[in-house]
Amino acid sequence: xxxxxxxxxxxxxxxxxxxxxxxxxxxxxxxxxxxxxxxxxxxxxxxxxxxxxxxxxxxxxxxxxxxxxxxxxxxxxxxxxxxxxxxxxxxxxxxxxxxxxxxxxxxxxxxxxxxxxxxxxxxxxxxxxxxxxxxxxxxxxxxxxxxxxxxxxxxxxxxxxxxxxxxxxxxxxxxxxxxxxxxxxxxxxxxxxxxxxxxxxxxxxxxxxxxxxxxxxxxxxxxxxxx
Length: 227
Known about the structure:
Elements: H1 12-19, H2 25-32, H3 36-48, E1 51-53, H4 61-70, E2 76-78, H5 90-97, E3 107-109, H6 118-125, E4 133-135, H7 143-152, E5 158-160, H8 169-178, E6 184-186, H9 194-203, E7 208-210
Parallel strand pairs: 1-2, 2-3, 3-4, 4-5, 5-6, 6-7
Helix pairs in contact: 1-3, 2-3, 4-5, 5-6, 6-7, 7-8, 8-9
């Protein structure tokens, strides 16, 4: 009879504590296939993760949603597009939106995911009511997504709209007017006129509009009262 390996004698909680330090999802998948105990340990480890980043990983809808569903304690989710190409679509965002952790997320990055539209973003954001930081730069979202963010994320502090060329000044005004805790917004590469940014500062003078160095002079423009 073979003697039990030392690592197999570890309590399941201690095993999960060790496995939570593994950042490679490939390694976690391999660990999950060792035995039933290790598979349970991987699930417990994912349940303790507060951050998940798929940057640099080639992920699809099902695999991403499956991992997020197991991450009950998740606070920060990064599914930015990597050089390998991200296959996340609106269907993936919908599946992710059903995970128990979504309402507790404080940070989401969807940077550069070109396969998503307003439909998927709205489905996800309307359930992410604790969100403080959101990066949707490099996507094709429109004012529809900005309206959903404004209505669903009262605690939003920072927003990245880098090169979101389909958002308009109307969407930005709604966002800044309703998200009263908003501290910074990155609008590099958008197609809105400079006067719009001056108008945003008229609504919220302390707002940091990036990139820095834009020639913004609030006193140079007269604005009508907001409805």
